[in-house]
């Protein structure tokens, strides 16, 4: 089977909002700070990725004097939230059977940097005004806010935060929005308009794959390597990109059922993987927008799939047609990609986590970029061997570069606009197909360097 297969006042009159921090503590903490505001601080992304990244950053002292403001609806104190971090966050240090004195100090320092704000982002400007009032009592260097919540909240959050004066075109707060940014092409366009009217260039669209060491390395390899670039521009035969995961949708059924596998991994990570390797270069810059604008979907070569039992997942529609895996073929109007099949495949519920891409050339040579289970770049000719045995976590890089006011690893609105166009076309094509099924835990589809067609084993 084929699968490619809250009324507000001055913060010192309303200090209870920052549970666990007294007036004296607030007054004493007046060194110049970097502040990270984490919305959705109890969600899966925060637990599994963002909090571990922040812990690493604090431990390495990459961002000095960092204060973390964790925001969630739960009526907790800062002490309660710190207990949550100890119990639920995926910090590597918490997995150790024994901790050294240094380990414990690092953990204590990290926990002491966290403040908690109990607030509902759906209740207007109150929570944003409270955070702003606190920030106004501090000497700050940089402020970064991260929207680790469902995308349908983004537009109201951008608007309400701007009304409160927490962020805006003339503020220094950078706002990070986590993919997929919106629920559909229309809502994405509305979000970008709101961003342009409020935050402007201070809004950054996140695709964490762009923070991976190997993704940044591809560009560094391509720019000076004329032999490789010549082959990419004249001798490509086909490109295969796959991103298969061994997890399932059990913890986020309602959210996942609205998106599906293609939005989840295809239109985000896989398209960025593709751009890193074959998008046109202008000097050292990869022109992803130009590549994405050239792409179209071969509607005859799309395969939506769903693992058996998905429809029984909590908060998933009993007759759901949402794909949990997919295979699609894209084509490009760029001259050097005109007759090159671009095959994207991925999904959930497989036996292992595998993420890679292979570009095969007409002479049988190839370049392989692996992101999971290990990061590396290997090419047969010109010979390239690059391994990254201990890569920095992508979210660590994302947060670092946001504080450093860099923009190169963030998705541009124009790129995301083209991604949503492709999503719309793929979803329309899926709707015309019968959805195929596969067993949960199925083997990841294999491929070889001479054949772009993948088969379920």
TrEMBL record:
According to the entry, every stretch annotated as the Glucose-6-phosphate dehydrogenase NAD-binding domain falls at: 37-216
**Which Pfam families does the record cross-reference, listed alphabetically?**
G6PD_C (PF02781), G6PD_N (PF00479)
Organism (species): Candidatus Zambryskibacteria bacterium CG10_big_fil_rev_8_21_14_0_10_42_12
Can you tell me where the transmembrane regions are? Answer: none
Gene3D superfamilies in the record, alphabetically?
A: Dihydrodipicolinate Reductase, domain 2, NAD(P)-binding Rossmann-like Domain
Which residues does UniProt call coiled coil? none
Write the record's keywords in alphabetical order, separated by commas.
Answer: Carbohydrate metabolism, Glucose metabolism, NADP, Oxidoreductase
To which pathway does this protein belong? Carbohydrate degradation; pentose phosphate pathway; D-ribulose 5-phosphate from D-glucose 6-phosphate (oxidative stage): step 1/3
> Biological process (GO) annotations?
glucose metabolic process; pentose-phosphate shunt, oxidative branch
Domain (Glucose-6-phosphate dehydrogenase C-terminal): residue spans on this chain: 221-368, 385-446
This chain belongs to the protein called: Glucose-6-phosphate dehydrogenase
Mind telling me which InterPro entries this protein's record contains? G6P_DH, G6P_DH_C, G6P_DH_NAD-bd, NAD(P)-bd_dom_sf
Q: Does the keyword Membrane apply?
A: no
Q: Name one GO molecular function term.
A: NADP binding
